[in-house]
Amino acid sequence: xxxxxxxxxxxxxxxxxxxxxxxxxxxxxxxxxxxxxxxxxxxxxxxxxxxxxxxxxxxxxxxxxxxxxxxxxxxxxxxxxxxxxxxxxxxxxxxxxxxxxxxxxxxxxxxxxxxxxxxxxxxxxxxxxxxxxxxxxxxxxxxxxxxxxxxxxxxxxxxxxxxxxxxxxxxxxxxxxxxxxxxxxxxxxxxxxxxxxxxxxxxxxxxxxxxxxxxxxxxxxxxxxxxxxxxxxxxxxxxxxxxxxxxxxxxxxxxxxxxxxxxxxxxxxxxxxx
Length: 274
Known about the structure:
- There is one protein chain.
- The chain is of the alpha/beta class.
- Helix 7 (178-192) links the parallel strand 7 (171-173) and strand 8 (201-204).
- The protein contains 10 helices and 9 strands.
- The chain has a domain at 73-129 and 171-257: 3-Layer(aba) Sandwich (Rossmann fold), CATH 3.40.50.450.
């Protein structure tokens, strides 16, 4: 009964949002953030009283996330800065990219916030594709953008990151800051260490990401800390149509090559084009 109670106390929203409607999420005091409670060094008393119980809350969040996204297939995740403005060229590119991906039969997953996330959800909405927002509790007010059809708010960053990876056929990474870089490097590490099946990691914007690729190739690869294959696995793209081509090609190949001999792969959602 306790587990069930924790599950249903999770900040879980499965919503069909009407057009032009935002969900506002009030700020949460820093000391009340569940990530902070988990990661701050605990006192002996806190270890005895609460640490083991927190495992149940974490488990409940995983269960809620798996239940929420179980029927989402196929899908891609689009990352990028929450600070990107409507007039920015990358906002329009994210709208177009998500629209093409949506018309190809994929759901679109984002962090559910403003900027590039809003643009991607908008493109999915315009394509008539499922538009998903996976939000996170933060110590300041935020909102789930008006173009999200299916929304969820997570307490723990690592649970949210698991959902991004588990339910995505590809990561499309637009210009962004630390959060975007965190998701990017996390995915590359999982692919490099074979913890997940290889899927395309696409960097949109050669002007923005070109310096990173040069640094990886000249400095990191030059020091023999990664392989040429690691660098070459990144797709540096400046065209929404090319992004869609890469995603579709990997998806179609995965249906053939990424299954066990005794595993029956469920049929993909049909892709269509105008």
